[in-house]
Amino acid sequence: MRYQALRPEIAVDAEIDDIPAAAPTQLRSQRGLIYLGICLVLIGLNLRTVFSSFSAVLPEITSDAGLPGWAVVVLTTVPVTLLGVFAPLAPVLARRFGAERVLLGAMAVLTAGLLLRPTEVPGAGHLPTLLAGTAACGAAIALCNVLLPGVVKRDFPHRLGLMGGLYTTAICASAALGAGFTYPVFAATGQWTSALWSWAVPAGVVLLLFLPLAIRQHPVRHQAVRGGVNVWRSAVAWQVTLFMVLQAMMSFSVFAWLAPILRDRGIEGGTAGLIVSVSIVLQMLGSLFAPALATRFKDQRMINTVVALMTGGGFALSIFGPTELIWIWTGLLGLGQGSLTAVALTMIMVRTRDAHTAAHLSGMMQGVGYGVGSVGTLLVGQLHQATGGFTAAGVLFLVVGALAAFFGYRAGRNKFV
């Protein structure tokens, strides 16, 4: 049993190559450390609402704003693609401005993007701002995705398990909140614009809370020192990365398309949002227990294969299965997806021997995983546009699930990058 692979000193850290080493956040008291922890968790609580809130009212947006088919596909694909595109930029900005100020800037961009998204441009409609606001949100979330783990590791070395669990749970909870509360806000106000604008409020509150702490920091110029294993030339690294790509294809397709799929099957909007929210909550349970189970064994071939097939099968059954059992299908999907995401990320730790290799593998997985993984939402959108339904998407997820099982089996072997 390789618990040493998960020890805190090799937790993934975007600042690990910095010379001099990044200093802890400058705080005035122990209360300041608690305040920082609360802010980091609250940042995590805003990192997925942009995906699930849009899908919760997608039919209303499409109808009212008169969105063409290509625009729907782009709006569900671009933010995921940008997670991969902007991920490599985060360490560069952190070396120049400090991780705290980059996180503050990212939250400012996220808040502005959420405010811009539903705004109507006279004479041009909603499409330009939907595109610009969604892109801004995707770029901001990419920076936060990369920098949050390193700040947690750096400032909470003795509470890494607690803080890591809190902020990752917060990220998952943000998707559940976006799925569960967006349609009720629409139903109460009668405006999809109000439903989307409402998510700028929590982002703006976190921005204000984090502002005094971030501007107090005095960033030091850092240089990046490269060395160690070249993960791009490692067969094991590519197997792990392709496993990540395939799980990302399914994960973000859940956020972008599960609610529209359920509504296409005749389920009322509020109920569809609740089903998606519960499915995402079940993802949290899977993400809590799967890594502990995976690390009990020398290799992870079996668990990687099982959770990949659960996810692909659950997604397909949500499309093909009887609607009377829809809670079971989406529950299976939730447990499978949460476990799949968690074990894919666990591969970073168990397939590497040191912190530098883990950090570089993480960068490779995020850049390629999110960038190529966005093809999942793109394909679902294009298949829906071409066929007028989601049957083809169900077949797609069976194929993706099978491929994820294959590469998960390969990545799960007891080999190292």
Automatic annotation (TrEMBL):
<dbReference type="InterPro" id="IPR011701">
    <property type="entry name" value="MFS"/>
</dbReference>
<feature type="transmembrane region" description="Helical">
    <location>
        <begin position="236"/>
        <end position="259"/>
    </location>
</feature>
<keyword id="KW-0812">Transmembrane</keyword>
<feature type="transmembrane region" description="Helical">
    <location>
        <begin position="271"/>
        <end position="290"/>
    </location>
</feature>
<keyword id="KW-0472">Membrane</keyword>
<feature type="transmembrane region" description="Helical">
    <location>
        <begin position="389"/>
        <end position="409"/>
    </location>
</feature>
<dbReference type="InterPro" id="IPR020846">
    <property type="entry name" value="MFS_dom"/>
</dbReference>
<feature type="transmembrane region" description="Helical">
    <location>
        <begin position="302"/>
        <end position="320"/>
    </location>
</feature>
<feature type="transmembrane region" description="Helical">
    <location>
        <begin position="33"/>
        <end position="58"/>
    </location>
</feature>
<feature type="transmembrane region" description="Helical">
    <location>
        <begin position="102"/>
        <end position="118"/>
    </location>
</feature>
<protein>
    <submittedName>
        <fullName>MFS transporter</fullName>
    </submittedName>
</protein>
<dbReference type="InterPro" id="IPR052524">
    <property type="entry name" value="MFS_Cyanate_Porter"/>
</dbReference>
<feature type="transmembrane region" description="Helical">
    <location>
        <begin position="70"/>
        <end position="90"/>
    </location>
</feature>
<keyword id="KW-1133">Transmembrane helix</keyword>
<feature type="domain" description="Major facilitator superfamily (MFS) profile">
    <location>
        <begin position="236"/>
        <end position="417"/>
    </location>
</feature>
<feature type="transmembrane region" description="Helical">
    <location>
        <begin position="160"/>
        <end position="183"/>
    </location>
</feature>
<feature type="transmembrane region" description="Helical">
    <location>
        <begin position="326"/>
        <end position="350"/>
    </location>
</feature>
<feature type="transmembrane region" description="Helical">
    <location>
        <begin position="130"/>
        <end position="148"/>
    </location>
</feature>
<dbReference type="Pfam" id="PF07690">
    <property type="entry name" value="MFS_1"/>
</dbReference>
<feature type="transmembrane region" description="Helical">
    <location>
        <begin position="362"/>
        <end position="383"/>
    </location>
</feature>
<feature type="transmembrane region" description="Helical">
    <location>
        <begin position="195"/>
        <end position="215"/>
    </location>
</feature>
